[in-house]
From TrEMBL, chains A, B:
Subunit annotation: Homodimer which binds Holliday junction (HJ) DNA. The HJ becomes 2-fold symmetrical on binding to RuvC with unstacked arms; it has a different conformation from HJ DNA in complex with RuvA. In the full resolvosome a probable DNA-RuvA(4)-RuvB(12)-RuvC(2) complex forms which resolves the HJ.
Cofactor binding notes: Binds 2 Mg(2+) ion per subunit.
GO molecular function annotations of the record: crossover junction DNA endonuclease activity; DNA binding; magnesium ion binding
Subcellular location: Cytoplasm
Top EC class of this enzyme: hydrolase
Entry-linked InterPro entries: RNaseH-like_sf, RNaseH_sf, X-over_junc_endoDNase_Mg_BS, X-over_junc_endoDNase_RuvC
PANTHER family recorded: CROSSOVER JUNCTION ENDODEOXYRIBONUCLEASE RUVC (PTHR30194)
Annotated residues for binding of Mg(2+) 2: E70
DNA-binding keyword on record: yes
Protein name: Crossover junction endodeoxyribonuclease RuvC
Naturally occurring in which organism (per UniProt): Arenivirga flava
One Pfam entry name: RuvC
Reactions mediated catalytically: Endonucleolytic cleavage at a junction such as a reciprocal single-stranded crossover between two homologous DNA duplexes (Holliday junction)
Length: 190, 190
């Protein structure tokens, strides 16, 4: 028995999509990873349509149990944040149309879940994602690795800390810590 | 021959939707107006689904030629702006799925188009919308009137000033100015 999660790193220019299966022992397996792209000179509604259709096709083909997105914040670039929020709206809508629940995770939750460190950089996240899923190299570009990290974060029940406290010291958790250690994930003081 | 436009004032709690027919003489006729609502305690993806289905039903029933939305800016309330952007994304996606073009208009463009004054208040906008469409009273709530104003702004070709310069002094334009005048639309110094 395993849980299948679609993780989405929303964006108009590059939208990372990653699907993982996670079993009862918390082991992850890569099902699919891709980056959906649209050209900046296309009309906004056409860009939303293209990415929306891409997400709909993944939902119908791979039938995930849950969908997880990176939570959007209003950051420096307002224009880009609006595009991210619009894509998120479309992704949530397509998921809800299929009866799927959607979870939102903050970037620091996702980083903490896969690297043990909420301020990990993109290379650390990509490296840990590759290790967890047994890939020979890190998924590229970063949006692809981020989407898989979002899916893993969700499958494991959110932020790393809450997972540990909720599930206690299982064999999977020990295996996970060993993987973290061997990956040399840097743990810096907060 | 007339142009049918669906105007949308996007929001998660209240989403104004208004459809107008505008003829070659720029006269407007009300086709449909409503406010789609979702409760704040519903999951975000369910709220997006409910409003998205409402918009899809309007598109299929009334078959507008174009769709116009209020352009979203990152304002004070970041949380509400994200909801507005998500709804906008869903509305644009549903429109593009049906091959429709989507236009975005700023609040001041919309106000200028219907009242001649880009900083008009909500009561002035609602009053002018009622007069233009020959309604006995102003559409309520404000979101409904705003949606109709967005549709009229779009049907007339955007902001009031650009319409005047593009089309010159037509009979419709004179009729329009007379309507504005008799409505007592206040024109304040900018």
């Amino acid at each position: 028995m395993s849980l299948r999660v679609l993780g989405i790193d929303p964006g108009l220019t590059r939208c990372g999509v990653g699907i993982v299966d996670v079993d009862a022992r918390r082991r992850g397996r890569l099902v699919h990873v891709d980056v959906l792209r649209t050209p900046p000179d296309l009309a906004i509604e056409r860009r939303l349509l293209a990415i929306g259709e891409g997400i709909a096709a993944l939902l119908d083909e791979h039938r995930p149990d849950r969908v997880a997105l990176e939570r959007v914040f209003a950051q420096h670039n307002v224009r880009s944040v609006m595009g991210v929020a619009q894509i998120s709206g479309v992704a949530m809508h397509e998921s809800a149309r299929r009866g799927l629940a959607v979870a939102l995770h903050t970037p620091s939750e996702v980083k903490a879940a896969v690297t043990g460190y909420g301020s990990a950089d993109k290379a650390q996240v990509a490296s840990m994602v590759a290790r967890i899923l047994g890939l020979t190299e890190a998924p590229r570009p970063a949006d692809a690795a981020d989407a898989l990290a979002i899916a893993l974060c969700n499958a494991w029940g959110g932020g790393g800390a809450s997972v540990v406290s909720a599930e206690g010291g299982t064999p999977a958790q020990r295996a996970w810590r060993a993987a973290e250690k061997s990956a040399g994930a840097r743990r810096l003081a907060p």
